[in-house]
UniProtKB/TrEMBL annotation:
Annotated organism of origin: Paenibacillus polygoni
Stated family: In the N-terminal section; belongs to the binding-protein-dependent transport system permease family.
Compartments, record wording: Cell membrane; Membrane
Name the record gives this protein: Glycine betaine ABC transporter substrate-binding protein
Covered range of the whole protein: 315 to 581 of 581
Length: 267
């Protein structure tokens, strides 16, 4: 095959994240759909990926990563998604909240709050940028809640406070979920009186924990594409209480200075 200039420049590598992430599955699908047989998807973590991105940007080097919004990298840097005419990554994603069966009966106020909790990508970005700039996530949650009292009041209106009942949330350490989970934890503790532990786990255990009832909830279900395999496997054993954020997106991402626009250009 004729070698591809961009491919040669980046060593035919796409910089990925944790192997369990849905975006890794979508990217393998994209390699198939676009017949990119020369390419390798490199596993790592989202923090290793953003470190490599920052290094490339500093030198204006080419790089291709598995990216998504909302994420602070899109606020901080000039990046673009590659067009995906074959829709390997689907269209827009939404982030849904999944709770364990029986939560409604056991902790009605927590259940109702989790059912109501939703915010926008711009609102989430405020918190993500503070965390990226070095603020402790719990501190960033407090700051956000104090700056958005109306929203917090809407989520908690009329709910009866708990007396220190314990709750467990779980999440994967993606920047978007670090933000949402810390905010939910902050509101559950400070407005509703729960004692919350948030467990950072891999994507598989995140779902099995809620399905087994060991964990009360997760706010990290990206659908319809990114978490589809887990969602389909576990939906009968959990309860989906709905969308907590609309307008998310995943795809191959490059610095704006790179002279390609579509995944098709990688062939
Ligand atoms: N993400 C961010 C996740 C969901 C949140 C796109 C990396 C995933 O790929 O599963």
């Amino acid at each position: 095959a004729e070698r591809n200039a961009v491919g040669q420049a980046v060593n035919y590598q796409i910089v990925g994240i944790d192997p369990g992430a849905g975006i890794m599955t979508s990217t393998k699908q994209a390699l198939e759909d676009y017949d990119l047989t020369d390419w390798t998807l490199v596993e790592g973590s989202s923090s290793a990926m953003t470190a490599m991105l920052e290094k490339a940007l500093k030198n204006e080097d080419p790089i291709i990563i598995t990216g998504w919004t909302p994420h602070w990298m899109f606020n901080k840097y000039d990046l673009k998604f590659l067009e995906d005419p074959l829709k390997s990554y689907g269209d827009a994603e939404e982030i849904r909240t999944i709770v364990r069966k029986g939560l409604k009966e056991d902790h009605p106020a927590a259940y109702e709050f989790l059912d109501r909790f939703n915010w926008t990508a711009d609102e989430m970005a405020e918190m993500m940028i503070d965390i990226q700039d070095g603020m402790d996530p719990q501190q960033a949650a407090k700051k956000w809640a104090e700056a958005h009292k109306d929203k917090v009041a809407e989520w908690t209106k009329g709910l009866r406070s708990s007396n220190g009942e314990t709750l467990k949330l779980s999440y994967v350490s993606w920047d978007s979920e670090i933000a949402s989970t810390n905010l939910a934890e902050y509101v559950l503790e400070n407005e509703l009186g729960y004692n919350v532990t948030s467990l950072q786990v891999e994507m598989g255990p995140m779902w099995t924990g809620v399905a087994a009832g060991d964990v009360d909830a997760t706010l990290a279900a990206w659908m319809p594409v990114t978490s589809a395999a887990y969602y389909d496997r576990y939906i009968d054993k959990v309860e989906d209480v709905g969308v907590n954020m609309e307008g998310a997106r995943t795809g191959l991402t490059v610095p704006a200075y790179m002279d390609i626009d579509s995944i098709e250009d990688l062939k």
